[in-house]
Amino acid sequence: MKLNQDNIPKMGFGTYDRKGEAGISAILVALETGYRHLDTAQDYGTEKEVGQAVQRSGLDRDDVFLTTKIANGSLGKGALIPSLRESLDNLQIDQLDLTLIHWPSPNNAIALPVYIEQLAEAHAMGLTRMVGVSNFTIALLKEAQTILGDLPIANNQFELNPLMQNKNLASYCKNTGISVTCYLPIARGILGDVPAIAEIAARHDATPEQVALAFEFAKGYIAIPTSSKAERICSNFLATKLTLSEQDISAIETVDRGQRVIDPEWGPDWD
Ligand SMILES: NC(=O)c1ccc[n+]([C@@H]2O[C@H](COP(=O)([O-])OP(=O)(O)OC[C@H]3O[C@@H](n4cnc5c(N)ncnc54)[C@H](OP(=O)(O)O)[C@@H]3O)[C@@H](O)[C@H]2O)c1
């Protein structure tokens, strides 16, 4: 099937911190559970683990959607493509499904066109099926799309969960056909303390994390939760079977606190 931003598997597995043998085992559990989308990054140091886990799973390369992100240190002129080739080697593949710019260059040290043009070149060379960005604001998305011309920004990955709904940015992405990937989709396991979410979870005999993920899927987003524990990897996956009512969704919309967790001083402010 030809992939586009509309058919990226909605349930992905994040691989931040999934390092070494323990990391490979956790990623394998995810693949055995049914996750068919793995999210890594040059900065996580988990590309090799992802490659190993896919190999060991015995799944065909085409059955697993693979995303990596270009590190800040690889945005400069002439740096992006060699870094992406190294990622492909780490992952033991010839082509990424999705390559993202991990962050806009801190303090604009490298001008946006320098790395967005290299991203387009990587696509033209066949190193990645789709291109996208992460932690990009509306203004940066507009600037990047102008540079890319006909090549769509397939995806923007940013912090989004019931406590940080990032509504302006998510709605801009939706209206312009950019798929949204939620990172910190389960707010690192603290959602059971939110009464409205705890109540919905109890009513559906679900976990607060499943409720958060089901909310994100109902909104049309992709989510990439992670865990080091097999039981949680499996239970989070069951969110794909949970359907929330319109009332549940409206109630979750009201718990948004704009509570940002990932906030480097050089990162852009959210819209
Ligand atoms: N683009 C970016 O800049 C960016 C930034 C941050 C993250 N990401 C991506 O997003 C992925 C997910 O983000 P994240 O790992 O920060 O946050 P997360 O997925 O929201 O939370 C993961 C944490 O929650 C715990 N957890 C998992 N399932 C749980 C459950 N059912 N109940 C209670 N606690 C649970 C895990 O601990 P245990 O291991 O103990 O289960 C882990 O510490 C990352 O792996 C990475 O791929 C991208």
Query: What's the architecture in CATH terms?
Result: Alpha-Beta Barrel
Estimated helix fraction = 25-40%
Rg value = 18 Å
Helix and strand pattern: EHEHEHEHEHEHEHHEHH
Characterize the main sheet: 8 strands, parallel
- Report the span from N to C terminus: 35 Å
Shape annotation: globular
Number of domains: 1
Low-confidence stretches: none
List the ions, cofactors and other small molecules found in this model. Answer: NADP nicotinamide-adenine-dinucleotide phosphate
- Number of helices, where a helix is a run of at least 4 consecutive DSSP H or I residues: 10
The CATH class turns out to be Alpha Beta
CATH superfamily: NADP-dependent oxidoreductase domain
The fraction of residues in strands falls at 5-15%
Strand order of the largest sheet: 1-2-3-4-5-6-7-8
Kindly report the CATH topology: TIM Barrel
User: Structural class of the helices, strands and pairings?
Assistant: alpha/beta
Number of strands: 8
Average pLDDT level: 97
